[in-house]
Amino acid sequence: MDRELVTQGAEGRLYATEWLGHSVIVKHRFSKQYRHPDLDIYITNERMKAEARALTRCRSYGIKTPAVYDVDFNKSEIVLEKFTDSVTIRNFIYETVKNKLTMDSPVMLNMAERIGKLLVKMHSNNIIHGDLTTSNMLLVPPYDLSDIILIDFGLSSVDERAEDKAVDLYVLERAILSTHPNTEHFVAHLLATYENTGGESARDVIKRLNEVRLRGRKKLCFG
């Protein structure tokens, strides 16, 4: 089975290939040489289980994610649905800005709203992504009308606490502000949509988010 390397990160590699007649992405997790082999196998398997469960759980609630076709613990690999001609929201934003649209244009504010509503849906079902960035969100043609597809649930968990959901939002907020210039209004609109759409529980998460931000600032100031 021929494989084409798509990308490589700290946790593993992604390959594009064919599997039983499907175009798929194979996610291979590295072994960590600094860990005891038995511990490494245990941690890798647990993270693979958590990712497969989170992806399946999301789909059961109508949240667009790749279908899980196979989990191979011996090879430390998950076989996932491939979305043809997909782009990350990160690259969509870059292209939008390159085409002279500002981050507070109707197109981009609509994108912020869609992300906010999607995260409300995910959090209302107690799914914590764990690594929310614009690189972990995909669009398919036509991009401006596409459902948002969430990927890379390797650090996911299931938790009903507002604190964990607030940290999820904080990670995304920091990722957007540090990756994309002039996105303060975009982020504010995303979070306002989250708060206004999600009811009392979402308001509690936003309140916790403010506390998480304060802790983050103190950490930056005092180490």
TrEMBL record:
GO terms for molecular function: ATP binding; hydrolase activity; protein serine/threonine kinase activity. Pfam families: Kdo. InterPro entries: Bud32 (IPR022495), Kinase-like_dom_sf (IPR011009), Prot_kinase_dom (IPR000719), Tyr_kinase_AS (IPR008266). It is an enzyme of class 2 (transferase). Its EC number is 2.7.11.1. Its main location: nucleus. Residues 1-223 form the Protein kinase domain. SUPFAM superfamilies: Protein kinase-like (PK-like). GO terms for biological process: tRNA processing; tRNA threonylcarbamoyladenosine metabolic process. It comes from the Eukaryota. Transmembrane segments: none annotated. One of its GO terms (cellular component) is nucleus. PANTHER family: EKC_KEOPS COMPLEX SUBUNIT TP53RK (PTHR12209:SF0), NON-SPECIFIC SERINE/THREONINE PROTEIN KINASE (PTHR12209). Component of the EKC/KEOPS complex that is required for the formation of a threonylcarbamoyl group on adenosine at position 37 (t(6)A37) in tRNAs that read codons beginning with adenine. The complex is probably involved in the transfer of the threonylcarbamoyl moiety of threonylcarbamoyl-AMP (TC-AMP) to the N6 group of A37. TP53RK has ATPase activity in the context of the EKC/KEOPS complex and likely plays a supporting role to the catalytic subunit OSGEP. Atypical protein kinase that phosphorylates 'Ser-15' of p53/TP53 protein and may therefore participate in its activation. Component of the EKC/KEOPS complex composed of at least GON7, TP53RK, TPRKB, OSGEP and LAGE3; the whole complex dimerizes. This is non-specific serine/threonine protein kinase.
